[in-house]
């Protein structure tokens, strides 16, 4: 049973990291296995670590989501068919992630957001968190993912892992949120990518010291600029929180981040 006072960390395995975003429905199984092994090592090094894992939809869910415009709203029979297709692809990738983590002897338990979350105009309105809290208390690793969600105004929508983490963070108060993708972090000069920004605060944006760029992989839920703005809003709301955006492809990067090291770009209040 986990100690509720132990450090809590949220880790997202980005869709660009665990799938080939340029090739539809293509998982990167070798990468998934390597990431799972690093998480297992980090937990061996720090058995008290409490961890919520999330993953993106990558080249699975984003394909039908873009075709049907699911994030913007779901109303017609054709759009509801698309909603179901996005659900299927997100669930398919989720099963691959579960398999990889269980193979590494990690006590993972998937908690599909579609069945637990209600949205209102693209934001979490209701989420019964008892199962997730109980999983953490039992020493399990709750796994969530970007998923289709029933929405009071839009009919249906998609919430990204970052959207879900934002809501969870306000209720569970993690020390860190780790966003692992294929970028080194946030580039000052994207797409040239020669100058990495090591640290970002809300004041940097307000003072105009940083112009936000994009990322290599297409993403129907917003991409890098959206990720940074959402993260900065969250660290303003939770000043003790820090968020890392980093390259999960690098050997040992996941373990380092879980061990508390600062890699990639660090966002804080």
Topology readout:
Elements: E1 8-13, H1 15-18, H2 29-45, E2 50-55, H3 58-68, H4 77-103, E3 108-110, E4 117-120, E5 123-127, H5 130-137, E6 141-145, E7 147-151, E8 155-159, H6 161-172, E9 176-181, E10 186-187, E11 196-197, E12 199-200, H7 202-206, H8 223-237, E13 242-247, H9 253-258, E14 265-268
Parallel strand pairs: 1-2, 1-9, 2-6, 3-6, 4-7, 9-13, 12-14
Antiparallel strand pairs: 4-5, 7-8, 10-11, 13-14
Provide a descriptive summary of the structure in words.
With 269 residues, the chain is α/β, with parallel strands linked by helices. It has one domain (8-268): 3-Layer(aba) Sandwich (Carbamate kinase), CATH 3.40.1160. Helices cover 39% and strands 23% of the residues. The protein is built from nine helices and 14 strands. It has an eight-stranded mixed beta sheet with strand order 3-6-2-1-9-13-14-12, with helices on both faces. Strand 10 and strand 11 form a beta hairpin. It is globular, with a radius of gyration of 17 Å. The two termini are 32 Å apart. The mean pLDDT is 93.
Find the CATH superfamily.
Acetylglutamate kinase-like
Q: Can you list the strand order of the major beta sheet?
A: 3-6-2-1-9-13-14-12
Task: Tell me about the largest β-sheet.
Answer: 8 strands, mixed
What fraction strand? 15-25%
Distance between the termini: 32 Å
Instruction: Tell me the helix content.
Output: 25-40%
**Overall average residue pLDDT:** 93
What is the N-to-C order of secondary-structure elements (H for helix, E for strand)?
EHHEHHEEEHEEEHEEEEHHEHE
**Gyration radius, in Å:** 17 Å
Shape: globular
CATH topology: Carbamate kinase
Which CATH C-level class is it?
Alpha Beta
CATH architecture: 3-Layer(aba) Sandwich
Number of domains: 1
**Beta strands, count:** 14
What count of helical segments does DSSP give? 9
> By helix and strand content, what is the structural category?
alpha/beta
Name the poorly predicted regions: none
